[in-house]
Amino acid sequence: MAFEKICTLDDVWEGEMKAFTTKDGTEVLVVAHEDDKIVIFQNMCPHQEITLGQKGILNENGVLVCTAHLWEFDSCTGKGLNPTDCKLAVYPSKVEGDDIYVDTEGITPEKSHS
Ligand code: FES
């Protein structure tokens, strides 16, 4: 495990998401839920590898939607909701004080059918 600071709680407000890049160039998507619950996903849609930081939204139900072709993901687990045979990789994360840390070591972004 090699956690590195990726941003702070002030960088991503509750109900929002934002993309960041780790020191080794891995693009991650930080999703901020209620009560400072943070989930960090791959920043690439598994469908056609479009950047979720640009094409992704959190809809009114908290579902992460890639607006390129409307694939939907559970914004807490990364599980595919539509279609269901896909998922987003989840990176281990932690919050210490106001700082958000991520560990991308050994985790490969998911890809899916197209
Ligand atoms: S690239 Fe995301 S749904 Fe197609």
From TrEMBL:
<comment type="similarity">
    <text>Belongs to the bacterial ring-hydroxylating dioxygenase ferredoxin component family.</text>
</comment>
<keyword id="KW-0408">Iron</keyword>
<keyword id="KW-0411">Iron-sulfur</keyword>
<dbReference type="GO" id="GO:0004497">
    <property type="term" value="F:monooxygenase activity"/>
</dbReference>
<keyword id="KW-0001">2Fe-2S</keyword>
<protein>
    <submittedName>
        <fullName>Toluene monooxygenase system, NADH oxidoreductase ferredoxin component</fullName>
    </submittedName>
</protein>
<dbReference type="InterPro" id="IPR017941">
    <property type="entry name" value="Rieske_2Fe-2S"/>
</dbReference>
<dbReference type="GO" id="GO:0046872">
    <property type="term" value="F:metal ion binding"/>
</dbReference>
<keyword id="KW-0560">Oxidoreductase</keyword>
<dbReference type="InterPro" id="IPR036922">
    <property type="entry name" value="Rieske_2Fe-2S_sf"/>
</dbReference>
<dbReference type="Pfam" id="PF00355">
    <property type="entry name" value="Rieske"/>
</dbReference>
<keyword id="KW-0479">Metal-binding</keyword>
<feature type="domain" description="Rieske">
    <location>
        <begin position="4"/>
        <end position="102"/>
    </location>
</feature>
<keyword id="KW-0503">Monooxygenase</keyword>
<dbReference type="GO" id="GO:0051537">
    <property type="term" value="F:2 iron, 2 sulfur cluster binding"/>
</dbReference>
